[in-house]
Design goal:
This protein is of the alpha+beta class and 293 residues long. The protein has helices at residues 11-24, 47-54, 58-65, 74-83, 88-97, 113-122, 143-149, 158-164, 168-171, 175-190, 197-209, 211-218, 266-275, and strands at residues 129-132, 138-141, 228-234, 238-248, 256-262, 284-285. A hairpin with a 5-residue loop joins strand 1 and strand 2. Helix 4 (74-83) runs antiparallel to helix 5 and helix 11 (197-209) crosses helix 12 (211-218).
Length: 293
C-alpha cells in the first residue's frame, strides 16, 4: 500500500493564512460587537466568528488559514479584511498574496546599472544614501552611509547588519523600534516572494541566529514602508537625526533607493565630518557584481 504524497502548499497562500490568523488573534470580540467572556480559550476571534461576520462558510475560512484555498475572491478577502480591521497596507498585502496585484519579479542588476546607482548615491553626499535589492542586500552605498550604518563588506545586507552585528545597537539608539519597523517593511515588500531561494535562505539564517528577528517575523506584521525619523549614533558626532525616505527604482522590481536627509543641526555636523576627511571611504557597489535585484 503506497502512502499519499504530501500535499504541497503554495508559499504565498501559506503566508496569507498565517497572516490572517495572527491578525484574527488581535481583534477582540467586543471590537466586532460580539460578547466576550472568561471562558474563551483563544486570543481574539474564533475562526467561526470571522466566517460568520464575513458571510462565508466556516470550513472555507478554515481552508484559507490553512493555505488550501486557491481561488479566494477579492470580495471575500475584502469582507475578511473588514472583520479583522485591516489597515490599507495590510489589506493590500493580503490581496497581493492572493494574486490580485502584479508582483514584479526580481531582476538581475545589469553591469551598466551600477555606475548610475553609484552616481546617484554619491550625488547625495555628504548625507547618507544607499540602494537595497529585494533581499535588502546593499547594492550601493555612499561613504557616509557605509560609515554611519556599518554597510561594508562583500555580503553587506541591511538586515544582517541590523540583527547580527553586535555594534548595531550602538549605531541605532532606537534599535527596538528600528528592528520592528524593518521586519514589517521587509515582509510587506517581499512576502509574496517567499518562494525566492535567496530571500528564503536569508529569512532562515536570521531566524536561526537572531531570536529577536525570529519573534518579529512570527508576528506576520506588515507596514507599507519604514520611512520617517531615524536616529543614528556616532562615537565622534553623537546622536544624529535624519528623515528617511525610500524610493522605488523604476524598471527594477524590488530595488529601492534610501535617502537619509539630515534634520536641523545634523546637517552641519555631517558636512563638517565629510570635510574633515573622516568619511573618505570610496563609494562602491556592495554585495558583489551581478547581484540579483
Amino acid at each position: 500500500m503506497t502512502r499519499n504524497a504530501p500535499r504541497l502548499v503554495d508559499p504565498k497562500l501559506a503566508e496569507l493564512g498565517n497572516f490572517l490568523a495572527e491578525r484574527r488573534a488581535e481583534v477582540t470580540p467586543q471590537q466586532v460587537g460580539l460578547p466576550g467572556g472568561a471562558a474563551r480559550r483563544v486570543p481574539g476571534l474564533r475562526r467561526e466568528e470571522v466566517a460568520m461576520l464575513a458571510g462565508i462558510g466556516a470550513s472555507w475560512y478554515a481552508w484559507i488559514e490553512q493555505g488550501r484555498a486557491k481561488n479566494v475572491s477579492p470580495e471575500i478577502l475584502g469582507a475578511i479584511a473588514r472583520v479583522l480591521r485591516l489597515d490599507e497596507a495590510q489589506r493590500l498585502y493580503a490581496m497581493r498574496l492572493a494574486g490580485y496585484a502584479a508582483v514584479g519579479r526580481p531582476q538581475r542588476c545589469a553591469d551598466d546599472d551600477l555606475p548610475l546607482l553609484l552616481q546617484v548615491v554619491d550625488g547625495f553626499l555628504p548625507s547618507p544614501a544607499y540602494v537595497l535589492d529585494h533581499c535588502w542586500d546593499v547594492t550601493a552605498a555612499n561613504a557616509t552611509a557605509a560609515r554611519l550604518l556599518g554597510l561594508g563588506g562583500e555580503r553587506s545586507n541591511y538586515l544582517r547588519t541590523l540583527f547580527l552585528d553586535p555594534a548595531a545597537r550602538e549605531r541605532f539608539p532606537q534599535w527596538d523600534q528600528e528592528a520592528a519597523a524593518a521586519v514589517a517593511a521587509f515582509r510587506a515588500q517581499g512576502g509574496e516572494l517567499l518562494a525566492d531561494a535567496r530571500l528564503g535562505a536569508l529569512v532562515r539564517e536570521l531566524t536561526e541566529h537572531s531570536p529577536v528577528f525570529a519573534a518579529l517575523w512570527a508576528r506576520h506584521r506588515v507596514a507599507d514602508r519604514a520611512d520617517g525619523a531615524q536616529r543614528l549614533r556616532h562615537p565622534d558626532l553623537g546622536e544624529l537625526e535624519f528623515t528617511k525616505v525610500s524610493l522605488c527604482v523604476n524598471g527594477r522590481a524590488g530595488l529601492q533607493l534610501v535617502l537619509l536627509s539630515p534634520q536641523y543641526g545634523t546637517a552641519e555636523l555631517t558636512e563638517q565630518w565629510a570635510a574633515s576627511g573622516r568619511s573618505d571611504a570610496l563609494t562602491r557597489p556592495l554585495g558583489g557584481r551581478g547581484a540579483t535585484v
